[in-house]
Amino acid sequence: MTQRPAVLIMQRHLAPLSAFLEGAYDVYRFWEGPPIEAAHDIRALIVAGEFELDKSLIERLPNLSLIACFTAGYDGIDVEWCRARGLPVTHAPGVNHEDVADHAIGLILAARRQIAEGDRTLRAGGWSLSTRSITTSLSGQRLGIVGLGHIGEAVARRADVMRMNVRWWGPREKDASWPRTDTLIDLAQGSDILVVACRADENNRGLISAEVIEALGPSGLLVNVARGQLVDEDAVIAALKDGRLGGAALDVFAQEPTEAARWVGVPNTVLTPHTGGATTEAVQGMLMLLLQNLSAHFADEPLKTPVAD
Ligand SMILES: NC(=O)c1ccc[n+]([C@@H]2O[C@H](COP(=O)([O-])OP(=O)(O)OC[C@H]3O[C@@H](n4cnc5c(N)ncnc54)[C@H](O)[C@@H]3O)[C@@H](O)[C@H]2O)c1
Ligand SMILES: O=C(O)[C@H](O)CO
User: Fold this and answer.
1) Where is 109: in which H helix or E strand?
2) ipTM of the predicted structure?
3) Which residue's alpha carbon is nearest to atom 15 within ligand 1?
4) Spatial contact of 245 and 237, defined as CB atoms under 8 Å apart
5) Given the CA of residue 99, which atom of ligand 1 is nearest to it?
6) pLDDT in tens, 192-241
7) Domains detected in the chain
């Protein structure tokens, strides 16, 4: 009988994948203890791309031949380093972007129309007939998108229907229906709402800097559905506290899970725990790609969705 390939799942929240892998693979789980005995057998790592992948672990697995990333983002993986060791990396592009775009619009609505705050006020008995909050209309708002990839485009399409005025910025010009600004600062200065939707890598850490936040200004809303490391989070908190930034609606954070205490007393924020792409449907699509990549790899066939660059 030929030996089944062994795979190692790195993060505990990916544990449900075991049930789909065990038919074809010997499955190890990192949180159950480093796979010292099985180190020689492990052929693939299964990872969530937002967590830093420990290079020293990779070096301890002599027969590792694939890094299979369950997620769209792969910022935690040093792809060049892996490539230099002949280790291909796969990910799950083009599967969860519509859900993330829905989430971004949800965050914008929650923040601008005070839906989350209204819910809190009502439940605390704060609804009185003597006052009524007046909120901001989304129609006509200038929406800036940082990174016009799968998510950025899906946000732009939704914003068009909602009669917002869309512009975008990214390092490369591309054929798109929406105008691209010359610089990120131009985009921030000319936006009421700035949605961060780009890939995160070592070159764009802190891209949404204090200067960009300043340019967005006291009535601007910052939305981040991409990665926390793209934003100078300390600068965002400071600007929110002293009114230099109007609001922030965030699904991703510098540290995940973010400390609840970090957000106490930070006004005009709507926060969600990195659930933008977490729908049953998207997860099924991501699982499908993971299984296809693994079986292609072990059959010596071309990978379905390798990291392209
Ligand atoms: N919140 C969530 O649950 C969730 C879900 C999926 C993806 N994400 C994150 O969102 C990112 C984008 O996802 P996608 O599916 O749109 O990926 P994508 O590859 O389709 O698009 C990424 C875009 O970023 C652009 N880009 C690269 N570097 C840039 C820079 N320095 N400045 C501006 N733009 C830049 C690229 O040109 C590309 O258009 C992922 O890499 C991931 O980190 C988050
Ligand atoms: O990149 C993704 O697919 C999501 O952020 C989940 O990690």
Assistant:
1) helix 97-112
2) 0.99
3) 150
4) no
5) 5
6) 999 999 999 999 999 999 999 999 999 999 999 999 999 999 999 999 99
7) 6-91+280-299 (3.40.50.720), 96-271 (3.40.50.720)
